[in-house]
Amino acid sequence: MSIADNLLKYKKELEDSSAKLVAVSKFHEASEIMEAYNIGQRVFGENIVQELVDKQAELPKDIEWHLIGHLQTNKVKYIAPFIALIESVDSEKLLTEINKQAAKNNRVIDCLLQVYIADEETKFGLSFDEVIELLRSDNFQNFKNIRIVGLMGIATNTESEKQIRDEFQELKVLFEGIKLSYFRNEPSFKELSMGMSADYKLAVEEGSTMVRIGSNIFGKRVIKHFKAE
What we know:
By secondary structure, the chain is of the alpha/beta class. 40% of the residues lie in helices and 19% in strands. The N and C termini lie far apart (37 Å).
């Protein structure tokens, strides 16, 4: 099946839900992204800053780019002029830098707080307590150039459907509690990004508003190595 066929299949599956499809295009060529773009896909996710910057310069300017991977503070300045959503904010230090670089670009950058929900040490994210601590901090109150629009989480890579569902449910409960306590009067706090190729159906059932699907749309990736800036 072609990229277009794969994409249309997922769009059809998701049309009865409120979940937005983020097409994860890392390690795929601009021409492949254009195939998805030409049938209406506008939201793409990347996790390597240099690759994202190169693609943004080459591709149509109405693409909504999401940064979905771990982001180092020294790389924020490269994406601050154009990024639509940073899904992977996992520390107050990173949020401080995003706010600083957004101010330099006279922008307000939308962000998701990445929450650690998996039973895997390799995953990034804030603990539930750290999320609350961050939102209560004096530093957070002073951020004028970021907008927290929701939470993101990556479930454990496991065959256990029950474990995955439990992790998504826990994140949904946290999301609802935080919305009530800190964002009650802010309709922009509405995104719950959870679910990838292997578990997106469970994520949608548990209330995800954004799913991140890559190789099942674009096919197998050719891994590229980028030099550090």
